[in-house]
Amino acid sequence: MAAIAVVGWLIGRARLLGAGAEQVLARTVFAIAAPSLLMVTIAHADLGLLLSRLAVVTAISTSVVVLIAALVVRFGFRRSAGETTVVTLAASYVNAGNLGIPIAVYLLGDAVAVVPTLLFQLLVLAPVAFAVLDARPGGTDTRTPADDGTAPVPALTRARGVAARTLRNPIIIGALTGVLLTLLPWDLPEVVYEPFRLIGAAAAPLALLTFGMSLAVPRKEAASAPARELALVIALRSVLHPALAAGLGLLLGLEGTALLAVVTMAALPTAQNVLVYALQYGRGQAVARDAGLWTTLLAMPVMLVIAAVLG
Fold it and tell me: What are the tens digits of pLDDT across the range 18-29?
């Protein structure tokens, strides 16, 4: 995995594929390869995984991190609701696409391991965050009328927008399609799955190449993140979350590969999507940017420790 990421970094440094290539590859993984991989994987998996102890540990440990981050930032640091939401996402929303999928495939041997994390983030965390951000007159999307001093968007309209945005997500479409296929009373011929299987096989290596290329992109000058917010995010993301997942997993009787899977997924770094959301809503950009960098640098050492202890 590291070797593939290094190749991506060399490609990015040499600009071999031209400016902005990492964005094109990232979109290819997000919109085509990863949904294909998840659809085929889930369609052939035991549907009980989505209601298993792994999913319970993922939901509870992530919810605890969300609660701690929100309370500390909102009431301890006295930040606005918009900034609190972005910092909370930086502490809880992990890079399950670009890093989670290849790690699940190469380290754990099955892409299904990342599904509970992906679904919880896309079906719970992201919609709730959008609802909060869209509700703030000063923190709405830059494309909404609220920035012009007009009234905020009605609640029903916001809810419809959040639901539509969630259901249009390619990862959600791929995962839900796989779930529907598992519910069919018959099995589709394997020849139907084969094109999707071939495309999905590109998801993991392309994601690692994209990750390496993104590290080679020069960072633009910007204000530094507040030290206490950044320290909180790093502590929650790189230490507390995997520790919580390990404790809950052991409490619920997980062991072996199952325990390794849920703790490894909890140790993933902050997703780059958080920076996208921060830029879109004009809240917490510095924290989102620096959290993505530092938690990514810490992720591999943390995962090596996890693999040494639980592997």
Answer: 888 887 887 888
